[in-house]
Amino acid sequence: MATGRTHRPATRSRGIPEATVARLPLYLRALTALSERSVPTVSSEELATAAGVNSAKLRKDFSYLGSYGTRGVGYDVEYLVYQISRELGLTQDWPVAIVGIGNLGAALANYGGFASRGFRVAALIDADPAMAGTPVAGIAVQHTDDLDRIISDNGVSIGVITTPPGAAQQVCDRLVAAGVTSILNFAPTVLSVPEGVDVRKVDLSIELQILAFHEQRKAGEDAAAEDEGAPPMRATPAGRKGPDGDMPAVMPA
Amino acid sequence: MATGRTHRPATRSRGIPEATVARLPLYLRALTALSERSVPTVSSEELATAAGVNSAKLRKDFSYLGSYGTRGVGYDVEYLVYQISRELGLTQDWPVAIVGIGNLGAALANYGGFASRGFRVAALIDADPAMAGTPVAGIAVQHTDDLDRIISDNGVSIGVITTPPGAAQQVCDRLVAAGVTSILNFAPTVLSVPEGVDVRKVDLSIELQILAFHEQRKAGEDAAAEDEGAPPMRATPAGRKGPDGDMPAVMPA
DNA sequence: ATGCCTTTGTGAACGCGTGCACAAAGATAG
DNA sequence: CTATCTTTGTGCACGCGTTCACAAAGGCAT
Ligand SMILES: NC(=O)c1ccc[n+]([C@@H]2O[C@H](COP(=O)([O-])OP(=O)(O)OC[C@H]3O[C@@H](n4cnc5c(N)ncnc54)[C@H](O)[C@@H]3O)[C@@H](O)[C@H]2O)c1
Ligand SMILES: NC(=O)c1ccc[n+]([C@@H]2O[C@H](COP(=O)([O-])OP(=O)(O)OC[C@H]3O[C@@H](n4cnc5c(N)ncnc54)[C@H](O)[C@@H]3O)[C@@H](O)[C@H]2O)c1
């Protein structure tokens, strides 16, 4: 199982493009804010601005859900909130289990924004025997030995992994074996899962590296011109020491 | 500034596609692991598997950086580590400031994975006067009043926002005014920034909602057929109470 | 009732990203 | 030195996502 198969042109998401799905939560958040201010209707232009996207994109996105707008007026806020919530599956309760209750796991457990949208922290699981029974965010931490039972008993289908990278794959396997079919992975590891299981990853380090890339480009633009040749040690934003001890002696070709 | 302008076909990233940039950290991680095991060379096939991508994609990605491989052999691990590090700007030191030292901010501050790749937590900033001076992860928390000076003194160009959503835009504005040009935002807010400033967001809630969408689809597939019409309350994975108090009375059209 | 004015919904064009498939490159063996 | 074999680098085609631009729809004023 989960050998090398990366093929996945299988079940397309019933017409709704993945990119659209990823934006629906954004729209929902903006709509919820409008709803709380008792705004009755909103135009695609206004809502798009609030969500930080293009209005044409927003309209096309909504067109996949159906024709919920009124021409000349806009969209009914409450109705749209309901439609998107339903489409995303937020009208039901999603029990979530967090595995690895360290710095990050505890922060997530304490995070109030979870429950706000139908997600409920149903269980906290850790391998450290000393933590078993300790309450974190009002929930007693349970031991990994009981993982299987905990998942089953609570009907958990979404698991969050916040263990060290070395343990992530093993924890993932156990979660999947116990019935979890969606995983949010915070460990910097590539997880292998059988077909039918969704994995999304949140990787702080990658985000920072992408920012660093663009940051470097911006710095290099100022003192443009000379590209290759000179060691990149001029427009360093920090002005600390340059590259050191990283330069390999090996040079192929 | 930063009014409605979302146009940005301006400076393309010197040939390297954004999608490729986003994968470079992934390759780098896999390569570092190989390097630690003293593996001298690696083929595109092996490395692609380790990084969880397609081998053709990997080769094409590398082709944007130059021809660093040797046909018939593969890539020199050490050399490739250096080339990617250099391309990502990781051969220099990036001082990072974290603003909002609560649950999440503290977890990030304590996270060791930061420094591993040239990122250094240079400052922790919070608005709570009671926190000023308190050491978190060995670094004294400083007050927001001094934000401008802290950013300047440390040459910080990358800021991390972990404040409550309401404060995020204001904090962002202050960071930008102080000279920050890259922001990693954990608050569930759409940030407006002037041109030239990069923003990346990490949004746990959105990730969970995307997972919920697919989860719902999977559950609906089992008991397929009847689409619209009946209330969606059958194949609930949790079996808890159904939608409640969310159903709006308004129905346009 | 009629015409105007706003805004949606979408057809169509375009550009980016992905993956296939293969020729060229180079290492290695004989 | 030549042949063979492995693996890169990339041309090409395809599909997805984005954006433009506009006709159709519907509210609203008169
Ligand atoms: N802390 C951060 O800000 C941060 C940021 C980005 C990524 N991460 C990643 O998140 C993960 C957790 O980070 P952290 O700082 O919370 O680490 P941590 O060491 O504080 O916590 C890890 C927890 O996982 C538990 N654990 C270890 N093996 C386990 C297993 N097999 N089953 C169940 N639990 C197990 C440990 O007992 C510990 O409580 C790491 O992979 C880290 O790379 C953390
Ligand atoms: N904790 C999580 O797991 C988690 C997950 C996803 C998103 N988030 C988001 O991350 C942010 C922080 O979450 P948290 O759980 O750490 O919240 P928290 O309340 O624990 O911490 C927020 C911190 O920000 C400080 N702060 C408030 N206003 C400030 C300002 N103007 N300038 C500087 N500092 C200020 C507060 O003093 C507090 O220390 C929130 O926006 C939250 O929605 C958190």
From TrEMBL, chains A, B:
CoA-binding domain segment(s): 89-190
DNA-binding region range list: 26-65
Superkingdom of origin: Bacteria
Q: Where is this region: Disordered?
A: 219-253
Membrane-spanning segments: none
Matches recorded under InterPro entries: CoA-bd, NAD(P)-bd_dom_sf, Rex_actinobacterial-type, Rex_DNA-bd_C_dom, Tscrpt_rep_Rex, WH-like_DNA-bd_sf, WH_DNA-bd_sf
Any single Pfam family the record assigns to this protein: CoA_binding
Residues given in the record as NAD(+) binding sites: 100-105
- Enumerate the UniProt keywords alphabetically: Cytoplasm, DNA-binding, NAD, Repressor, Transcription, Transcription regulation
Q: What is its main location?
A: cytoplasm
Q: What does the UniProt entry say about where the protein is found?
A: Cytoplasm
* Family the entry assigns: Belongs to the transcriptional regulatory Rex family.
Entry function: Modulates transcription in response to changes in cellular NADH/NAD(+) redox state.
This protein's assembly is summarised as:
Homodimer.
What this protein is called in its record is Redox-sensing transcriptional repressor Rex
List the source organism: Streptomyces durocortorensis
